[in-house]
Amino acid sequence: MTALNTFGAVLTFAIELEARLHDYYCAAGRVDRAQEADKRRVKLERVRRESVLEITLEAIEGLNAGDYPLNLEDTTPAGQQANERTAAQFYAAAAPKINVREAQRVLERCGREHEEAAGR
Amino acid sequence: MVKRLKNYVGGRWVESTATIYTPVINPATCETLGECPDSTREDVDRAVQAAQAAFEEWRRTPVLNRAQYMYRFKALLEERFEDLARVVVEENGKTRDEARGEIRRGIESVDFATSVPVLMRNDGVEDIAAGIDETTVRQPLGVFAAITPFNFPAMVPLWFLPTAIACGNTFIVKPSPQTPLSMDLIFELLDELDLPEGVVNLVHGGKDAAMAIMEHPGVKGVSFVGSTPVAKLVYETCTRHGKRVQAQGGAKNYIAVMPDADMTASVKNIMGAAYGCAGQRCLAAAVVVAVGEAYDPLREELVKQASSLRVGYGLDESTQMGTVVSAAARERILKMVEQGIQEGAKIALDGRYITVAGFEDGTFVGPTILEDVTPDMTVAREEIFGPVLSLMKAKDFDEAVEIINRSHYGNAASIFTSSGKYAREFKYRVNAGNIGINIGVAAPSASFPFGGQKDSFFGDLHGQGEDSIDFYTDRKIVIERWI
Predict the structure, then answer these.
(1) Do A6 and B276 touch (CB under 8 A)?
(2) Is the ipTM of this complex over 0.90?
(3) What is the pLDDT of residues B255-302, one digit of tens each?
(4) B residues 319-358 near A, CB within 8 Å?
(5) Helix or strand run (H / E) with residue B426
(6) Is A55–B81 a contact, with Cβ atoms under 8 angstroms apart?
(7) I need a surface site. Which of B319, B362, B396, B419 has the fewest CB within 10 A?
């Protein structure tokens, strides 16, 4: 189980998650959601670049990549909903562990967007 | 095929006349990443001549246009951010986040340089005498150079180059031969800016190239960051040759922890200060002074958190501490720990013989804690420059301040406390150039000067902030009357 124990590990996991969702939604024919995922990926890349504050880099505990598996085979509406819920859960767990407010805010927003998508 | 580095002189990549090349080694994988020329006096002279030739045209380039180059430079740095961070990890051994943090702080300095049109403004007084106006103007001086260290191979040159050239000077960088690849990549980006040829120059090399820069009559000033003995040599050599100089030396940074501090949160931050960049930064926490009853809970928390840090190859995102820069550095660190033990310190956490699976030859030193350290021990007085934290006791706040002020270094000092009274007294009384209050790495942002006192700094004007504008410009006074 890969530990998401650094700022970069959390952000990189989020970036890869959005990239995988982008490809997943492309395969599912959901262009709108693919675009949303891509927009989030770009935003998260910016956050990883701009919000890394050398003097407050601290270890992160209690977050593991394995707890947030996506099922990319199941492109049914129910499968999409489940993946959105997983993504939302990841962001909800990750945001409070990041000690840079700007980054935290973006993670919270990503979480909200996935939560809304899960409800749609 | 290993890349043999070239110098960048007069807007072109040129072969050095060196006969000696030093291998650039990835300290985790031991892979040779490149070969760095030990450039000669002739190479330095060519760079100085190119920079001198470019100066007149460049200083006449309007300051707003010079600032525009900085905006474009920033955009290129952002675009290649991850590539730069990777190169820093590969050649230096730090973690990805630390490398990203370094590039970010380098970009902050470029941001600062975009403000030069405002920062170069000066003042004047009408009718200082009857019908006479007096004003000051800031003018660039000519060719400046930076001699920079291995520990922040991308950031430290960027403390100097952007502001110097935005002020209208021309510039030469001589990076550390241990970590020259970051600058090599940054100069590829500078090459894309289409600056006038000779405005920026890169000369790789070691001591010979450094001495040639310091002794060259065409160089107006030198910025240096490195160890104290070398900083002192740089200061003395440059002043003897009539140059401006800012020479930042080594450090032995103390952290005082008061009994009223939040131990868990404080130690979490101290971890980054002590073990970030494997302790190889001039702002690293080297000694923690536990005041009174703080000792037991502090020791317990330090050992607990330090022993859980994940040591590994910096390119792995889950690595929390990377390697030290070289086998020689590792050897020196281990010797100092051994010396500390011989002088009476006890080892509370031993990271000396750590191995990392898959990187068995890497120059890793795990988080190490020495306890029962006293102020007279070598490990308390001299810079270790590795992931070794010395733990000391002080009976009260006054004794802690006294211990800290006894150090011949004065780069940084921090206090962890919830008391405003102690925090104020600390910043008032402690003789260090950068003070942290509940911050273990007291690193000033680019718009503030990087402080340093005693044997940690030689010179008058510090790097960064408005000091850098003063360093890279001369103020000319104009007394004007029309008759």
Answers:
(1) no
(2) yes
(3) 999 999 999 999 999 999 999 999 999 999 999 999 999 999 999 999
(4) 319-320
(5) helix B420-429
(6) no
(7) B396
